[in-house]
Amino acid sequence: MKLETGNLDILSAENEERRGWFVGSFIPKDSLLNSDSCEVKWSKFLKGLKRTSSQDASDNTHTVAVLIKGKWKCFFTEEKKKVILSEPGDFVAYDGGAHHENEALEDSHLMVIRWRNKE
Question: What is the DSSP letter of 14?
Answer without folding.
Answer: H
